[in-house]
Specification:
278 residues; alpha+beta; N-terminal domain of MutM-like DNA repair proteins; Helicase, Ruva Protein, domain 3; 2 domains; four-stranded antiparallel β-sheet; 7 helices; 22% strand; binds zinc ion
Length: 278
């Protein structure tokens, strides 16, 4: 499942090729994604340059003067970039964003076999896209300077749920999927079952640093896959950092040698070292 690092790597792969180019047409072959893809996007956007391709949480924000296209990859989605006329669309190639380039066309193609992804339109008249219902409740970005130990501790003060649950909820900080939650709690030396409000300034500081480090490593690992985003073939192009605890139940901890444990929290697997994480 694409997580924040995959979305960020997608953004970095596409932005240099598409920003500044004018959209020529939006070809929608399947409207029934998680929510219906709005009709009439070509009419709204033809001739409009893509001002910026941004990311907020796991949403890509395609900024045009009349408004913003908001896209999400769902469970199985991916964007591929074609620098020339793309091959005929496959069964799961639901949307093409066709841009005019000096040497022809460039096409960003959304492929999504399970169709849990989304492509939505937020017109400028409705105000800043950050106020869109899907974005308004999102927590701070992990690389935002406002995300620090003091912020984290303040936001955890009245949360009695286990810290892993709070991280996954995404309303305190975005970008912590299930794998990254286990990994960053391991690096921070925090037991995933700890009630969130018990984390003091030191553990909050370690968690902020660990989370940034884990996500940065994942994005960097994805950097080596950037060229996979261009062209017709290749898999979905997902990648993962080398997990130290996730999926390693029964294996020795790389720090202390104790056996990694697997538990289920909120119906999701959590992996941790019972000796290193307190
Ligand atoms: Zn250990």
């Amino acid at each position: 499942m694409p997580e924040l690092p995959e979305v960020e790597v997608t953004r970095r792969a596409l932005a240099p090729y598409l920003e500044g180019l004018s959209l020529r047409a939006v070809h929608v072959r399947q409207r029934r994604l998680r929510w219906p893809v709005p009709a009439g996007l070509t009419g709204l956007l033809a001739g409009q340059p893509l001002l910026q391709l941004q990311r907020r949480g796991k949403y890509l924000l395609w900024q045009f003067a009349p408004g913003t296209l908001i896209s999400h990859l769902g469970m199985s989605g991916s964007w591929r970039l074609h620098l020339h006329q793309p091959p005929p669309p496959g069964k799961h190639d639901h949307v093409d964003l066709e841009f005019a380039a000096h040497d022809g066309v460039r096409v960003a193609r959304l492929t999504d076999p399970r169709r849990f992804g989304a492509l939505l339109w937020h017109p400028r008249q409705r105000g800043a896209v950050e106020r869109h219902a899907l974005l308004a409740a999102l927590g701070v970005e992990p690389f935002d300077p406002r995300f620090d130990a003091a912020y984290l501790q303040a936001r955890l003060r009245d949360r009695r749920a286990p810290i892993k649950h709070v991280l996954l909820a995404g309303d305190v900080v975005v970008g912590v999927g299930n794998i990254y939650a286990s990994e960053c709690l391991f690096r921070a030396g925090i037991d995933p079952r700890t009630p969130a409000h018990r984390l003091g300034p030191q553990r909050c500081a370690r968690l902020v640093a660990a989370l940034r480090a884990v996500l940065a490593e994942a994005i960097e690992a994805g950097g080596s896959t950037l060229r996979d985003f261009i062209g017709a073939d290749g898999g979905a192009g997902y990648f993962m950092l080398k997990a130290q605890v996730y999926g390693r139940a029964g294996w020795p901890c790389c720090v202390c040698g104790a056996r990694i444990r697997r538990i289920v929290q909120g119906q999701r697997a959590t992996y941790f070292c019972p000796r290193c994480q307190r």
